[in-house]
Amino acid sequence: MKLAEALILRSDYQNKIFELRERIQNNVKVQEGEEVAENPIELFTVLKDTLSNLEQLVIRINKTNATIMFDNQQTLSDLITKRDTIKKKINLYTSILNQANVKYDRMTRTEIKYVTTINIAALQKEIDDLSKAFRELDVKLQEKNWTTELL
């Protein structure tokens, strides 16, 4: 199995766990004299199996990411960490930029006037550069995922 296929399967397991939780919650109580739509005990069994499968798959994914070298210096885990850090920077900087762009209308000259204390254009350029770096790194990771066998 390729690493990319394992990542898709991991996502499927996570979605299935979420759905099973919802189904169990919908069937743990029923009005006296009524029947449950689905047997929560059977759903629990499926949930436990899915959680176990997810655990084993994530262990294999993590081993693969920590072991496989992307280039001569960095593992896949290193690049994933770098990509995640870039994404965090983008989100933080975008939040700051959005706050700096808020306009406050003054009705009279006696109302408080707010001025922006950062260079909005420079921050936007940095966000754009980070976004480009994120996309390029993500494409490289996706490519490697489709050519790497899961350990």
What does this structure look like?
- This protein has 151 residues and is mainly alpha-helical.
- It has helices at 3-27, 40-67, 76-100, 120-147.
- Helix 3 (76-100) packs antiparallel against helix 4.
- The longest helix is centred in the middle third of the chain and has 28 residues, at 40-67.
- The chain starts with a helix and ends with a helix.
- 5% of the residues are buried.
Question: Topology of this structure?
Answer:
Layout: H1 3-27, H2 40-67, H3 76-100, H4 120-147
What is the strand content? under 5%
The major beta sheet can be summarized as:
none
Q: Rg, please?
A: 24 Å
What is the CA–CA distance across the termini?
A: 9 Å
Give the overall shape, derived from the CA principal axes. flat
Helical content, roughly? over 70%
Q: Kindly name the structural category.
A: mainly alpha
Topology pattern, helix = H, strand = E = HHHH
Number of strands: 0
- Give the overall average pLDDT: 93
Which runs of at least 5 residues are low in confidence (pLDDT < 50)? none
Q: How many distinct helices?
A: 4
Please name the defining characteristics of this protein.
mainly alpha, 151 residues, flat
